[in-house]
Amino acid sequence: MLVEEGFVCMSNDVQLHGKGLFSKEEVTVSINKKINSGVLFTVNNGNKESISANVENVSNATRNTVLTNGNESICLIEHFLAACSILGVNDIEVITNKNELIIGDGSAIHWRDAFLKANLCSTVKEKIDLSKTIFVKKDKKQITAIPHDGFKVSYCMDWEHPALGKLYASWEPKDGSEKILRARTFAIKEENDYFGVTETLLTLDEKGFNKKLHEPLEPLYHKILDIIGDLRLSGINPLEVNMHVIGFKSGHELNVELAKELSVSLRGGS
Ligand SMILES: [Zn+2]
Question: Where, residue-wise, is CATH 3.30.230.20 in the chain?
Answer without folding.
Answer: 6-117
